Amino acid sequence: MSYILGVVLLACTTALTCALPGVFVVLRKHSMIVDGISHAVLPGIIIGFAIVGDLDSPVLILGAAVTGLLVVLGNEWLTETGLLAGDAPQGLIFPSLFAVGILMVSMDFQHVHLDTHVALVGDMNLAAVIPLTVGGVNIGPEYLYVMLGLLLLNAGFIAVFSRALKITTFARQFAEILGIRTRLLNTAFMFLVSVTVVAAFNAVGAILVISLLVVPAATAQLISTRLSVMFALTAAIAIIGALAGFWIAYVLDTGTSAAMAVFYGVLFVAVAVAERTATRLRRNRHQDVKSEETSATLVRSASVR
Amino acid sequence: MTSTPLACESQDLSVVYRDEPVLRHVNFRVPTGSVMGIVGPNGAGKSTLIKAMLGLVKPLTGHATFFGQPFGDVRKRVGYMPQSASVDWDFPTTVIDLAVMGTYGELGWIRRPGKAERARAMAALEMTGMQDFASRQIGELSGGQRQRAFLARALVQAPDLYFMDEPFQGIDAKSQQAMIEVLKDLSAQGKTIVIVHHHLASVLDFCDHVTLLNKRIIASGPGPETFTKDNIRMAYEASDGAEAFLAEAG
Fold first, then answer.
1. Whole-angstrom Cα distance, residue A189 to residue A73?
2. What distance in Å separates the CA atoms of residue A215 and residue A193, rounded to the nearest whole number?
């Protein structure tokens, strides 16, 4: 497989892997918790890297994801104490963990040389450098297969628990009454999100991963009336954004992840404006019909008289 | 007191939010087949009583039983209609999807809702007069239509005991009429209904039993003998709304 094709496929797979759980992240209004996770996993990644020595290792990915869960569980715990309101608990936890990560990076913890820039925005091209060869044939970047595996895991989890996720997201109390263990489901789901964030770290870094997770789903929600439609649109937007981002980065000779994030942002604004305009036009037409009806009635009643 | 078996009861139920007591040692009994209205001023703990019984809020003391059993054993016989304010109306789901959710409890993890489930959902929408809105996104409905859609979901569950949290809040007269018809139907079928209600004047229109609540039970029992001026005054502690109602009622 050519290197370029490898990068394109990696961009698409990473985008899709992040975007699918993103649907429920957006619907649950947990976007900022995911932002917290993406910061909090940094020390986990560095410690894991010091031990395993490979950013793509599944052991590192699962281990570092546990650090992300600290945000979720710590957030729940602090909220329940009733001492802090709103999203203050989050703001308390993740910056501290992120700062620990930054200290580790800058102090060359255990001689881990992690480029700060890569830690923040990742490097898609660098992530695709190491190829996987089977029987002497290059079948694409090794990292691509890690992300493909995770894509299957995410899609599988969502497929199996789709109804439970849907109902706990939409009506948590109703779900509890049905006997769904909403808390366990939420923790499992957020762990999967955390795993996804860590796995995507290599390609898109700690900061931009939130864009891949949230923006395609947020855009799709603007124009979806059903969950299945929202999933289909989210997937389509993720892929289109990955291809467009790659192309923009290629032409401008800049970072793929940044170009993807910018494209997603522009697409969101375009869809939001289009949706608003369409709604306004529909409303106006509705009013026109109504006023026509009214005048028709007036004319009729006048002629009867 | 009465030999009618109980659809549900709470024993010594107390709930505290932070350090604020919301319910104090509540012994609440609902006879099978009754339509029980829970009334009381704002902050009296009406919704909390329902939620604590159903395990949505953790009680400090006491417990509840349903048909003589703990809730976990009889989930399928109990339906719940949430307060409108607690629903995410932007969620991408249609009215028919919402009604189909009423079958989730019995379907379990693996089986997907099919034709039979959709037919049941559609029948429930017809009962509440919502069949023409089946493919609408729930956010596009009026207040009354929203409540009728949620009533349809509860009907699909086909429980023996319904809990409804302020089902008539913010709805139009037509929706209210449609819902009262359904409630009367259910009652005629021998179902038990517990309704949190805040409009004093209409309680006895559809409830045959009333509980006056203000953090503790002031009075509870058959409608006319319980819903007395003295009891209302005691529950509302001279609140303006109750005074106006009492003045009007003479």
1. 12
2. 15
One DSSP character per residue, B25-78 reads EEEEEEETT-EEEEE--TTSSHHHHHHHHTTSS--SEEEEEETTB-GGGSGGGE
Q: Is A170–B91 a contact, with Cβ atoms under 8 angstroms apart? A: yes
Residue A202: which of A148, A122, A105 has the closest Cα?
Answer: A122
3-state secondary structure of A268: helix
Provide the shortest C-alpha distance from residue A189 to chain B (in Å): 16
pLDDT tens digits for B14-59? 999 878 889 999 999 999 999 999 999 888 899 999 999 999 999 9
- CATH number of the domain residue A162 falls in: 1.10.3470.10
The CA distance from B72 to the nearest CA of chain A, in Å, is 7
Q: Identify the domain containing residue A81 by its residue range.
A: 3-304
- Locate the chain B residue with the closest alpha carbon to A81: B18
- Whether the complex's predicted ipTM surpasses the cut of 0.90: no
Please, what are the domains in chain B?
Answer: 6-249 (3.40.50.300)
Choose among B75, B87, B90: nearest Cβ to A177.
Answer: B75
Which residues of chain A have a CB within 8 Å of the CB of B87?
Answer: 170-171
- The pTM of this model reads 0.85
Q: How far apart are CA A195 and CA A201, in angstroms?
A: 10
CA dist B49 and B13 (Å) reads 8
Asked if A18 and A209 count as a contact pair (C-beta separation under 8 A), the reply is yes
